[in-house]
Design a protein that fits this description.
single chain, 238 residues, alpha+beta, Methylamine Dehydrogenase, Chain H, four-stranded antiparallel β-sheet, 6 helices, 24% strand
């Protein structure tokens, strides 16, 4: 199992262009996600090549939420194998899905993955989604037409929350898109909109500058005036 894990990591990272001594050190660190991230933090020159930075960012984006709290990969593979073994392959249980978009709408490229979604509890045709590459989007007719609410944002939206008593108030995690930097999966700050997603204001951008990622944002239960921001270096209150 360990050999399979290491092989996947090296295929993902593509460290073939690194000097032999650096490669050996990275191979040792790659046996544990946390150790590898710490190593790159201390030795950023190991991924100085722009293409390598981009591949490392993809690796971190994939593994950041899949390893256990100690940085071990094995738990994910055990879960994956168990899921495959338990999968019901009966034709009668397969679901048919229809894409609702948005795709290639008013953007020079695809919007990327859909990272989060909100459906108006009073109107199921009113939907907002966070996209990895093109900000926050909204449809008022069940997906037939979409509008980007945050065209001024340079990247995407990792996650967002809507105030339970006032849907015009939205907080979200702004995600760095395609800049070749690691830690991009954790977001580069928090944005707030009091206009349903329009004209967002940024805050807590220093978290990203300190190479710390934001993993989740949520309202305090019973008190939506208090917002928790969960980063990998602290818990912040807004």
């Amino acid at each position: 199992m360990k050999r399979i894990i290491l092989l996947f990591i090296w295929l993902t990272l593509g460290f073939s262009g690194i000097a032999q001594n650096s490669e050996t050190t990275l191979r040792e660190a790659s046996q544990n996600y946390n150790e590898l991230i710490n190593y790159i933090d201390q030795h950023p020159e190991a991924i100085s090549d722009p293409g390598l930075k981009k591949r490392f960012a993809r690796y971190e984006s994939f593994w950041g939420h899949r390893v256990d709290h100690e940085g071990n990969y094995a738990a994910y593979y055990r879960s994956l194998i168990k899921s495959i073994q338990n999968q019901d392959r009966s034709e009668n249980t397969r679901q048919v899905y229809t894409s609702l978009g948005p795709r290639h709408i008013n953007t020079p490229d695809n919007i990327g993955r859909v990272s989060s979604i909100w459906i108006n509890p009073d109107n199921s045709d009113h939907i907002k989604i966070g996209s990895a590459s093109a900000g926050l989007w909204e449809t008022l007719n069940g997906g037939e037409n979409w509008v980007c609410l945050t065209p001024e944002m340079p990247g995407g939206v990792k996650d967002f929350i809507v105030h339970p008593n006032n849907p015009n108030i939205i907080y979200g995690i702004a995600e760095v898109h395609n800049n070749g930097m690691y830690h991009h999966w954790g977001g580069y700050g928090i944005f707030k909109s009091t206009q349903g997603g329009l004209n967002p204001e940024m805050m807590l951008t220093d978290i990203y500058q300190e190479h710390a990622g934001i993993g989740e944002i949520l309202f305090k239960p019973g008190d939506p005036q208090t917002i928790y921001v969960l980063a990998n270096n602290n818990v912040y209150l807004i």
